[in-house]
From TrEMBL:
It comes from the Eukaryota. GO terms for biological process: intracellular signal transduction. Belongs to the Mo25 family. InterPro entries: ARM-like, ARM-type_fold, Mo25. The lineage of its organism: Eukaryota, Viridiplantae, Streptophyta, Embryophyta, Tracheophyta. It comes from Phtheirospermum japonicum. This is Putative mo25-like protein at5g47540. Pfam families: Mo25. One of its GO terms (molecular function) is protein serine/threonine kinase activator activity.
Length: 270
């Protein structure tokens, strides 16, 4: 790393690039965004110097996140933010901050580009740093999944629902989150939402919902209320899965489906 790069941190240039972004014209904003992104990868003696700097200047993250509320700055600040959360300590700060709750609203902003950018950042926060994510989800399970279900999975917006069910599958199928997954599949409310998503007209939502639903079916310690719901809907589910296909042949999907059908068919009232 050059002395110029080191100087950028010692002279607080990174702070100035972020704070002064509103004063720059569009082309210069793009350049500033690229500079901030590049700085996140600069190393001194194998340490990421930007990580140390951001830990000492964590208020810069507050500025970047709040950028989603400004149409002119949102995409620039969003791109900077995703680069900054490559650092685990920075991602941990964002996950544990009050800002995390705001993402459920940012993802549904009327501006499609900004909403998509916020969704990309949200996904990055919840998938990149496995141990930090597992700890966050365990400690914040109730409010997080309450918001996730009501604002995203049950959103009236098709794209929001599709992105959310895909992300939910990515989270629950990750081994790091096995404790969270076990808790999730014991909830009748969660099962109800998943069964509604299985009935969607959109094939892509149906398929993603299936990947989460199979976790409920595979659970060998199903609570009585889960068994009751599955029994009540047994014939409907078996009919649904009889015609359930992916657009391209997928051996793994067919094997999973066969296992789910076997589990559902074997359910008997006690």
């Amino acid at each position: 790393m050059s002395s110029i790069d080191t100087g950028i941190f010692s002279e607080n240039t990174l702070r100035l690039l972020i704070i002064c972004l509103p004063k720059l014209n569009l082309e210069t904003r793009k350049d500033a965004t690229q500079v901030v992104a590049n700085l996140q990868r600069q190393q001194v003696q194998s340490r990421l110097i930007a990580c140390d700097y951001l830990e000492k200047n964590i208020d810069l993250l507050d500025i970047l996140i709040s950028g989603y509320e400004n149409n002119d700055l949102a995409l620039h600040y969003g791109a900077m933010l995703r680069e900054c959360i490559r650092h685990q300590s920075v991602a941990k700060y964002v996950l544990e901050s009050e800002h995390m709750k705001k993402f459920f609203d940012y993802i549904q902003l009327p501006n499609f580009d900004i909403a998509s950018d916020a969704a990309a950042t949200f996904k990055e926060l919840l998938t990149r740093h496995k141990s930090t994510v597992a700890e966050f989800l365990s400690n914040n399970y109730d409010w997080f999944f309450s918001e996730f279900n009501s604002k995203l999975l049950e959103s009236t917006n098709y794209i929001t629902r599709r992105q959310a069910i895909k992300l939910l599958g990515d989270i629950l199928l990750d081994r790091s989150n096995s404790a969270v997954m076990t808790r999730y599949v014991c909830s009748r409310d969660n099962l109800r939402i998943l069964m509604n998503l299985l009935r969607e007209s959109s094939k892509s939502i149906q398929i993603e919902a299936f990947h989460v639903f199979k976790l409920f079916a595979a659970n060998q310690n199903k609570p009585p209320d889960i068994v009751s719901i599955l029994l009540t809907n047994k014939s409907k589910l078996l009919r649904l899965f009889a015609d359930f296909k992916t657009e391209k042949e997928d051996e793994q999907f067919e094997a999973d489906k066969a296992q789910v059908v076997k589990e559902i068919a074997a359910l008997e009232p006690k």
